[in-house]
Amino acid sequence: MSNNMNGFVNQAIPYRIEVVARGLIAPWAIDFAPDGRIFLTERPGRIRVVENGRLLPEPLITFSAPFVSIGEGGLLGLAVDPNFNANHFLYVYHSYRVRGRIRNRVVRLVERNNKATIDKILITNIPGNQLHNGGRLKIGPDGLLYITTGDAEVAFSAQNRTSLSGKILRIHLDGSIPGSNPFRGSPVYSLGHRNPQGLAWNPRTGVLYESEHGASGHDEINLIRAGANYGWPIIEGDERRRSLRLPLIHSGNRTWAPSGMTFVSRGPWRGQLLVSNLRGSQILRFAINRRNPRSIRLLSAFFRSRGRIRDVVERSDGSLYVLTSNRDGRGQARPGDDKLFRLRSIR
Fold first, then answer.
1. Which of 91, 235, 304, 339: disulfide with 239, CB 3.0–4.6 Å?
2. How far is CA 268 from CA 13, 176, 311, 344, in A?
3. Per residue in 249-276, pLDDT tens?
4. In sequence order, what are the residues at sequence separation of 6 or more whose Cβ sits closer than 8 angstroms to the Cβ of residue 223?
5. Is the pLDDT of residue 6 over 50?
6. To 5 degrees, how large is the angle CA 296–CA 17–CA 303?
7. In the predicted structure, residue 8 carries a pLDDT above the cut 70
8. Which long-range contacts (CB under 8 A, 24 or more apart) does 2-8 make?
9. pLDDT classification of 154: cutoffs 50, 70, 90
10. Distance (Å, rounded) from C-alpha 195 to C-alpha 148?
11. Rounded distance, CA 218 to CA 79, Å?
């Protein structure tokens, strides 16, 4: 099902828009500590901290070699441990160079007094390249860490179950592999992905959704099931092949370049799915049928005047936080870019 975006305008929204931080450099992901601090990654290799409404001048950590930031790679996903108050653990996904090749890995950090050090490498040697590194990290309702990986510009690696590229991975927070994973002894949770960059669970149903970059359009929103194959590069769009999963919805010949996504759990848009767009320079708002998790409808596009949108996340108070990505080498930087916005409900 492709969708025509004609007719959607940058409509008024039931939120007040506030600028929380300015002058960021290609921020990629955001998460929240229980003590109120906001952590966010910048792709060149820094984790920044917003505390008491102020962006701290010193980063939490600055990564050095073998870390590398090249093309779409660098410091990408971020997740805060659910037990952060006790253990102060953070999880990040980043690119690194080994023997001349780009790879990606997930590391666990430990934070003390707004400084962090690497505590443990959880998973390593994920294929990387200048493009298609995936990079989203999210901790699911099951307490496990979900990781999106791109095909690293080797399309058919997404169909190879022994490769970590073009997949959604799932591991315990200590890096071990859950016995309930669909393929015994493997971190692979689903396969056949091109460049997935968004994950979100519907809080009403517990169903996992994913956003994914297509090739020349055909960007996707998928419902993720354990062990399922989402078809790249064998099928895309509305093409069908037995045992391969079709997207719930795709962009047709348009390009959204979808990235971070979130469900709204309270307020005027409760139950709706928001998906940030880079090339589309907007946030898309979807309604999902509560009784049928595969039934999705595009409602509107908003936040179009801010440029490339990398991430959108709901905080526990119902406010939405949005990151721009206009300094990532593909956007047009504007005064004060990049920015972290807060959208506070006015209803």
1. 235
2. 10, 40, 20, 11
3. 999 999 999 999 999 999 999 999 999 9
4. 207, 208, 209, 248, 293, 294
5. no
6. 45
7. no
8. 2/237, 2/238, 2/250, 2/251, 2/252, 2/253, 3/249, 3/250, 3/251, 3/252, 3/298, 4/252, 5/254, 5/301, 8/300, 8/301
9. very high
10. 8
11. 28
0.90 exceeded by the pTM?
A: yes
What percentage of the chain carries pLDDT values higher than 70? 97
End-to-end C-alpha distance for the chain, whole angstroms: 33
Q: How many CA atoms lie within 13 A of 143 on its CB side?
A: 8
Question: Burial letters for 59-98: b for 16+ Cβ neighbours within 10 Å, e otherwise?
Answer: bbbebeeebbbebbbbbbbbbbbeebeeebbbbbbbbbee
User: What pLDDT does 11 receive?
Assistant: 65
Do residues 288 and 295 touch, judged by C-beta distance below 8 A?
A: yes
For residue 93, list its beta bridge partners: 106
pLDDT at 2 over 80: no
Residue with tokens 């931080």: 21
- Identify any residues that bridge with 200 across adjacent strands, giving them in sequence order: 209
Catalytic residue annotation: 132
Does position 7 have pLDDT exceeding 60, yes or no?
no
Q: Is 11 exposed, middle or buried (0-12, 13-18, 19+ CB in 10 A)?
A: exposed
Nearest to 147 by CA among 129, 173, 182: 173
The Cα 80–Cα 204 span in angstroms is 22
